[in-house]
From TrEMBL:
Protein name: Iron complex transport system ATP-binding protein
Residues of the ABC transporter domain: 1-227
Keywords for this protein: ATP-binding, Nucleotide-binding, Translocase, Transport
GO molecular function: ATP binding; ATP hydrolysis activity
Function: Part of the ABC transporter complex HmuTUV involved in hemin import. Responsible for energy coupling to the transport system.
């Protein structure tokens, strides 16, 4: 079943006629050069960017879904988050329950454990490092237990161990019958963890499919202007500029 499908999704020249879908159980990686339109696409799906065309959430037009229901179904982790207030980690994670109007202690504890932030619940978020804060904001989204989790570069500020931890947990999250769509610059990690990839180039969908279908020399040359060494058969996969 398609959790998300877009038809002729456009935002001026920033996103042009993008047709894609997110299937239940899958993790879909959005890749492309700086400025290719990855955040713009995620912002449209998250309901914070006006667009032309159609987006459907589990078959229902997104525009016809009440804001609260939409927030229950779709969780969004922006590229960077910060709090204007000195909130505790527990308070930040609890914000993820706002769409439900509860403080489901089990959901909050599970989210904190998954993002490995459970030891900091009583600390102030502004007294954590950048990468530590990023995991707390991820826990906030997880606490809402959305059917579709959208994440804009969720591993950009994380160390090697936490990149692996977060990508594994997002994959498990998708495999539980939900869906995850994330933008990611590290193509080797994208190939290793994503079921399918969607390659954007200058706002257009250049390719969508399995990592082997999308990560070809020709596509990477067109999208990134690099001649890349690609070895998807090695474990882990290797994609680096020559
Ligand atoms: N608020 C905005 N108003 C107008 N144009 C914008 C706005 N935000 C981004 N853009 C433009 O839209 C295009 C796509 O930007 P977007 O942020 O979606 O790219 P991206 O693929 O996420 O890039 P990056 O990898 O650098 O995060 C870029 O040309 C950018 O300059």
């Amino acid at each position: 079943m398609d959790l998300i499908d877009t038809r002729h999704l456009s935002v001026g020249q920033r996103l042009v006629n993008v047709n894609l879908n997110l299937v239940a159980g899958e993790m879909l990686g959005i890749i492309g050069a700086n400025g290719a339109g990855k955040s713009t696409l995620l912002h449209c799906l998250a309901g914070i960017q006006p667009y032309q065309g159609n987006i459907r959430l589990a078959g229902t037009p997104l525009a016809s879904i009440a804001e609260r229901q939409r927030a229950q179904q779709l969780g969004f982790l922006p590229q960077s988050s910060h709090s204007a207030w000195a909130l505790s980690v527990r308070d930040v994670i609890s914000l993820g329950r706002l769409p439900w109007g509860d403080t489901n202690a089990e959901a909050i504890a599970q989210a904190a454990a998954a993002a490995q932030v459970q030891d900091w619940l009583d600390r102030q978020i502004d007294q954590l490092s950048g990468g530590q804060q990023a995991r707390v904001w991820l826990a906030r989204v997880l606490a809402g237990q959305p059917r579709v989790l959208l994440a804009d570069e969720p591993v950009a500020s994380l160390d090697l161990f936490q990149q692996q931890n977060v990508l594994r947990l997002l994959r498990r999250y998708a495999q539980s019958g939900r869906g995850v769509m994330l933008s990611i610059h590290d193509l080797s990690l994208a190939a290793r963890y994503c079921d399918r990839l969607c390659l954007l180039h200058e706002g257009q969908l250049l390719a969508i499919g399995t990592p082997a279908e999308v990560l070809t020399g020709q596509h990477l040359q067109q999208a990134f202007q690099v001649d890349a060494h690609i070895d998807l058969d090695s474990d882990p996969p290797i994609i680096i500029p020559r």
